Amino acid sequence: MIGSISSAVFYDFDYGFMDDTRAADGDHTDALLVIDEPTFTGCHVWGRPIGGPEMSDEHGFYSKVLCVALGDPHQAHINRLEQVRPHRLVEIEHFFQTYKLLEKKETEVVGWRDRDRALEVLREDRATWGREQAR
Questions:
Q1: Of 22, 45, 75, 125, which has the fewest beta carbons less than 10 angstroms from its beta carbon?
Q2: What is the pLDDT of residues 54-87, one digit of tens each?
Q3: What string of H, E and C letters represents the secondary structure of the chain?
Q4: 41 — phi, psi (to 5°)?
Q5: CA-CA distance, 47 to 64, in Å (whole number)?
């Protein structure tokens, strides 16, 4: 479950997680979904990974996976990070730089990584989940 936000900011994307993954922080892998209409809590959406921000905060270094909704005709053509409007990426980055400020916590977007890195993160986090479930 995604925690609440203390700042007066909004998501310019849907925010959730990838099923059957376990990231380094012990949670499921964070997923950012570019979609024209917001979804709702508990909604499952098929998405195509296209890249993602690598970040650091008080818990350390981690990656998020940016996806486009497969069912959104306005996003269907996007296969790579470079195809997303550059300003949209700036908006996402700005969100993560500011959403914890009222909690006196800092978050830094270290950089954007391409589709291959996003797929690598997912493979690693799915393998971690698989090992965890096999115990």
A1: 45
A2: 999 888 888 999 999 999 999 989 999 999 999 9
A3: CCCCCCCCCCCCCEEEECCCCCCCCCCCCEEEEECCCCCCCCCCCCEEEEEEEEEEECCEEEECEEEEECCCCCCCCCCCHHHCCHHHHHHHHHHHHHCCHHHCCCCEEEEEEEHHHHHHHHHHHHHHHHHHHHC
A4: -55, 130
A5: 14
User: What tokens were used for 59?
Assistant: 């818990």
Q: Which residues contact 11 (CB under 8 A, 6 or more apart)?
A: 95
Considering only CA atoms, which of 12, 17, 73 is closest in space to residue 44?
Answer: 17
Query: Domain limits of the chain?
Result: 14-134
Number of neighbouring beta carbons within 10 Å of residue 130: 12
CATH of domain 14-134: 3.90.80.10
